[in-house]
């Protein structure tokens, strides 16, 4: 193992492979570098690497991910990379052949991505997923203070501003996401214990999905600001999630029959409370909060403030006996 390495103020470009690759390293600092025009990742971390700090690097025009934080490679199954930090810097134009993300975390533990500016990616702006060989989940990943724009030009392989798949105990906090192709924040593959708090998600002409889409359970969606999404503001496709204190404005701009907050059919025991939902343009969405008809029970809708919806459409809870509502303020 290589220990105690510093790489600083280097410009790597026109590489037929990754710009920089760190394999089985510990106590490494990589700061204030430039990486461009590579055929694979800009900077790649692999296999049993630990305590690696990346700060203020500029990475652009790469053919895969700008940063790839990985735990496994062929012949090294089960090796976990952990305690990896990415702070500051700018990432752009993760392009072409491998549909790269700005940052991809695959099976790593204790990863922090903070204050990074990401734009113009073919894949997701930031992707957290399981390890390539075993599928072991990423754990304890925090994404905070990042600005993600124009993410996911190729929606068939990417498209989300921030995507979490096969990961647990993650935090997505205080980020700004705009100009994505599919969903602003997307939790899939039955994601659990993801905290989505204090983010601003702005849709616009290029997005086709929800501000926040949740396919999982026991997740917290709190105090986010979501506006001008073409489809739903928040879509819930799992049980036992908490959606509270969010501010949703002018969502469902291209789908008049949709809801600002939707709980899909058959999903139960979600708590939707103390959200502010406003419709100013009458053609944007039909429902403020909607529980889709189906077998879902125990969804609680309490103390939400809704404005601008036609009578009866502020809260549509299917069977109110199965999905109780109380103390919601619905102002036409």
Can you walk me through this structure?
The chain is built from no helices and 37 strands. It is mostly beta strands and 332 residues long. It is elongated and about 65 Å long. The mean pLDDT is 90.
Number of strands: 37
Structural class: mainly beta
Distance between the termini: 65 Å
Number of helices: 0
Structure summarized in a few sentences:
The protein is mostly beta strands and 332 residues long. The protein has strands spanning 2-8, 11-15, 20-23, 25-31, 34-38, 43-46, 50-55, 58-62, 67-70, 82-87, 90-94, 103-106, 109-114, 117-121, 126-129, 138-144, 147-151, 162-165, 167-173, 176-178, 185-197, 200-202, 212-217, 220-222, 225-227, 234-236, 242-244, 247-249, 259-263, 271-273, 276-278, 287-291, 300-302, 305-307, 315-316, 325-326, 329-331.
């Amino acid at each position: 193992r290589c220990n105690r390495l510093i790489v600083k103020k280097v410009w790597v470009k026109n590489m037929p492979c990754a710009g920089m690759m760190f394999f089985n390293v510990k106590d490494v600092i990589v700061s204030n570098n430039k990486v461009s025009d590579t055929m694979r990742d800009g900077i790649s971390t692999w296999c049993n690497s630990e305590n690696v700090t990346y700060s203020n690097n500029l990475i652009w025009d790469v053919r895969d991910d700008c940063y790839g934080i990985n735990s496994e490679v062929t012949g090294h199954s089960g090796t976990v990379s952990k305690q990896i930090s990415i702070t500051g810097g700018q990432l752009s134009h993760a392009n072409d052949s491998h549909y790269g993300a700005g940052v991809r975390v695959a099976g790593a533990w204790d990863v922090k991505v903070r204050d990074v500016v990401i734009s113009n990616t073919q894949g997701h702006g930031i992707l957290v997923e399981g390890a390539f060989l075993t599928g072991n989940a990423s754990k304890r990943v925090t994404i905070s203070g990042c600005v993600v724009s124009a993410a996911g030009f190729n929606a068939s392989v990417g498209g989300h501003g921030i995507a979490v798949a096969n990961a647990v105990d993650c935090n997505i906090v205080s980020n700004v996401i705009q100009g994505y192709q599919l969903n602003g924040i997307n939790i899939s593959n039955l994601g659990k214990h993801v905290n989505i708090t204090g983010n601003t998600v702005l849709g616009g002409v290029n997005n086709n999905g929800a501000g926040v889409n949740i396919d999982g359970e026991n997740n917290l969606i709190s105090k986010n600001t979501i506006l001008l999404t073409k489809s739903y503001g928040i879509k819930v496709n799992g049980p036992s999630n908490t959606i509270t204190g969010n501010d949703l404005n002018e969502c469902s701009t291209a789908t008049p029959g949709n809801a600002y907050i939707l709980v899909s059919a058959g999903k139960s025991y979600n708590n939707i409370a103390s959200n502010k939902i406003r419709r100013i343009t009458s053609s944007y969405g039909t429902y403020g909060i909607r529980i889709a008809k189906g077998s879902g029970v125990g969804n609680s809708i309490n103390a939400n403030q809704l404005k601008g919806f036609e009578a009866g459409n502020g809260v549509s809870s299917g069977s109110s006996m199965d999905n109780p509502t109380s103390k919601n303020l619905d102002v036409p």
